[in-house]
Amino acid sequence: MARQMRAVRTRDALVESAAALFDRDGFDVASLAAVSARAGVSSGALNFHFPSKVELAEAVVAAAAERLVRIIRDREAPTLQSVIDASHELVRGLRGDAVLRAGFALSGCRRARRRCDAAGDGPGTDLRRLWCGWVESVVARAEREGQLAPDVTAEEVTETVVAVATGHAVLGTQDPRWLEGAPLTRFWALLLPRVVGAARAGLFVAAGARGTEPLHPRPVAVTVGGEV
Amino acid sequence: MARQMRAVRTRDALVESAAALFDRDGFDVASLAAVSARAGVSSGALNFHFPSKVELAEAVVAAAAERLVRIIRDREAPTLQSVIDASHELVRGLRGDAVLRAGFALSGCRRARRRCDAAGDGPGTDLRRLWCGWVESVVARAEREGQLAPDVTAEEVTETVVAVATGHAVLGTQDPRWLEGAPLTRFWALLLPRVVGAARAGLFVAAGARGTEPLHPRPVAVTVGGEV
Hints:
The structure is a homodimer. By secondary structure, chain A is mainly α.
């Protein structure tokens, strides 16, 4: 294995390990020693890749942002259905992927955020802002194209979808049933007749029309010894 | 001032101080030394009232639960309007009251919860469960009394209201505009015609029909010297 490829693998293993521990124990409690031990990497290798816990947190948020971008990109001419589909994919991702979970938690946690801000973290890695911005743009487009019912505004639809998805994500940390998809399907079934009008609600699939593929399966921990 | 009254004041000051610091810095980072200093109380007095940080967190959650109970109680023959009103009062409380904010965060944080669980914290002080349970009972009653539209279930309404309120609370920690009331009013304006039928939506006030009184104003810090 080439030296460079080993380094990439080590780095990936450290990010996965950090995500799992931030997710389980929180940013403040998770220790660098536990992160390197879980990844099967020496503390020297950890220090080579991430000189501080803040930089490790930034790498987790960046990895989560990549996955979120994968969820929302490639939806050509996105419509309301793509918002439904992406919300299901996001909830599924939060259920199964510690990187996405830890990334959202770090992105939403004032403690970690303040640290990230101090380290020069830009708005591009604010996952909630990324998600909000995308929903907002798609719903605004749906409104311009006359997809929304006449007495409904893009603003109230965007806010409700963003708040509900955030609520499911947060409630899911206590009770995983919130992330099983059924509550989200019920939400869309409740909302759609109001948002697009009862006559057109049947054109949409509340349970999500695509995206049964699992979200980016990655090995949880690649043991690569102490190599950098 | 009687000795007992001084003790109550000291305890209240410590709970307010702890709430402010848990809210600002998080449970894991906030130190007992900072809590006693902020309350103007000696560390001996702090130790007398709260032998550990876990017990302090429990007291914050209990104080928040009292305020939540005050928000949802005393609504005779509660109807959907009382859910609207209580949701507005809750969001207003989260905006202005560090005890309520810290209580919800501690109640929702897996770290602090595990600690609380270990210390024998009962389900009665799980604020989200308390809130969910109340919304569920009122919406179920509304369904039994024929207040809901025929093609709407109590379950989907309860889930949506609980998820949206949670979403507003969490998003409000990053952007206070979520707690200003207007987004919640827009949510209810969007949801009501679907939930009760367009013809009856006008019977409800999306902005909340009562509860302009401020939520339980309490002094943020009572300086009582080192007395217990």
